[in-house]
Amino acid sequence: MSIELREIDKHFGQYHALQKISLSIQPGELVALLGPSGSGKTSLLRIIAGLETLDEGTILFDQKEVVHLSAKERNIGFVFQHYALFNHMTVFDNVAYGLKVRPKKLRPSKKEIEDKVIELLALVKLEHFAKRYPSQLSGGQRQRVALARALAVEPKVLLLDEPFGALDAKVRKDLRRWLRKLHNDYHITSIFVTHDQEEALDVADRIVIMNEGRIEQIGSPVEVYENPASPFVYDFLGNVNLFKGRLRKGELINGDFSFKVPGSNLDSEQETVGYVRPHDVAIEKEVRPNTVKATVLHIHPIGATIHIELHRPDTNDYLEAEITKEFFNQLAIEKGDTVYIHPKQLKVFVPEDFSI
Ligand SMILES: Nc1ncnc2c1ncn2[C@@H]1O[C@H](COP(=O)(O)OP(=O)(O)OP(=O)(O)O)[C@@H](O)[C@H]1O
């Protein structure tokens, strides 16, 4: 099922929560809505589900308008952050629920329901838990029951609102991998809301980055991470170092460091910011042209990567660098050492209103 959103607008009283949101989702895609708290992710998901009305715009499923359809008629599976299971029902009955409450004409036979529930419990690896009650399960297990329950009615679209938000880091990671696998096997068009960038980058085919009710960027995880379209996306996706300065004849002057901004010959009095990912901070032991001096403040090994915190005396800025363990051993640096750094890559967003 394809989903198309056209210019969706939504106010809550005076507050403009969604501003002309347009988005096309291909059949079988797994899309993440990623953004900070209050950016409008949940409101958009609820509007797609038919749980919330929109002010303007329209929604099409397989090119057919669904705005006038109720949530039930849209044939959507919904999974919330808090499992929302029926506590008085066993796992089996929770999963069977959506099928059992169908009108008689559409209801599968008892045997068909049983087969389906057994199949789904095997899928979520809870086949031995059918007789338990939700209170006898861990958080991760409950969320898997919630997913099995959402899938039981064979939805055309699966919507997940921070599905792993309430779980601890390790369980989240397992469930993420598992959601990816489930999606590969079932190919249900799925949209999930998260404010966790790692989760979005790890799981989604495409990421929609939202900020203050607008879409900032849409792209594959690699596209949005490697080529952020705005300073907001740079800041929001992963750690980043800021090189703040002024433009002089197309060069960003930042303390003792200058950087030629490709394609620009501008002067600007406005503060201009260069963005540098930690893995793009090069560290040298010897001084070279156009490097700046920095002091090593902390060294943290995280797996095969070494995170290094640095301080620049010229600008009084703190920086983070990431290097491989191998390179760290070659460099042989210690806390307190003086090193020389330069960005291997730096992205500058030139201010719009500049003076030449
Ligand atoms: N029913 C409502 N009435 C009034 N304001 C609302 C309502 N629902 C959401 N809002 C407001 O709309 C904005 C967007 O909320 P929404 O829940 O969509 O954001 P979100 O990106 O999902 O945030 P979070 O990650 O915190 O869940 C927020 O400022 C919120 O306060």
UniProtKB/TrEMBL annotation:
Membrane-crossing segments per the record: none
InterPro entries registered for this protein in UniProt: AAA+_ATPase (IPR003593), ABC_SmlMolc_Importer (IPR050093), ABC_transporter-like_ATP-bd (IPR003439), ABC_transporter-like_CS (IPR017871), CysA_C (IPR041193), Mo/tungstate-bd_C_term_dom (IPR008995), P-loop_NTPase (IPR027417), Sulph_transpt1 (IPR005666)
Family annotation (CDD domains): ABC_CysA_sulfate_importer
The ABC transporter domain, residue ranges: 3-237
Domain of life (superkingdom): Bacteria
GO molecular function: ATP binding
Chain segments annotated as coiled-coil in the UniProt record: none
Keyword vocabulary terms for this entry: ATP-binding, Cell membrane, Membrane, Nucleotide-binding, Sulfate transport, Translocase, Transport
Pfam hit, one: ABC_tran
NCBIfam families, per database record: 3a0106s01
Protein name: Sulfate/molybdate ABC transporter ATP-binding protein
Organism in which the protein naturally occurs: Kurthia gibsonii
